[in-house]
Amino acid sequence: MSTDISGIIECRPGARLWGPDDEDSVWEAAIDLFLLNRGNRYDGLACLFGVRNSFGFRPLGEGRGFPPDASDGLRGEFASHGGSDDVHGTTWLTWAELAATDWQETDASGTRTRASAAGADTDWCRVWSVMRVLSEVHGTENVRLVVWFY
After folding, report:
1. Tens digits of per-residue pLDDT, 66-96?
2. The 143-149 sheet, strands edge to edge
3. Structure pTM?
4. What are the φ and ψ backbone dihedral angles of 108, each rounded to 5 degrees?
5. Through-space distance between the first and last CA atoms of the chain, rounded to whole angstroms
6. Is-contact 20 26, C-beta < 8 A?
7. Which helix (H) or strand (E) holds 5?
8. Which of 65, 77, 99, 100 is most buried when burial is the number of CB atoms within 10 A of its CB?
């Protein structure tokens, strides 16, 4: 049985203007992952999220769950996929974490790098481009990708 991924890139525009603790610094849905990512290569899912990790990557954001401060847009999209009853492996990553990632780190065999699995030359490049641009406007901690698997 295959594993598919869905998700949303969110940003928090108010955090840069008023600070992350301000009541108006809420997360907003920016773009659906479906519009940017055409694949579900398992090596990418493994190195990023720990899903189907037979490769032995040290996942960047495994098992964090659904963010309690999720945007209304994200909540609606997640619910349309059945919510927690029909999906598994919900987690998220900020652009700050991705920007600080050692893309040359390898899997357990030492042959596959993070870059080859989910770097700039993979289907993830469009996702990273959107997140990078949003982070230039809103700050690296105020842009995240929230995903779930089914």
Report:
1. 999 999 999 999 999 887 778 888 999 999 9
2. 28-32, 5-11, 143-149, 88-94
3. 0.93
4. -60, -30
5. 10
6. no
7. strand 5-11
8. 77
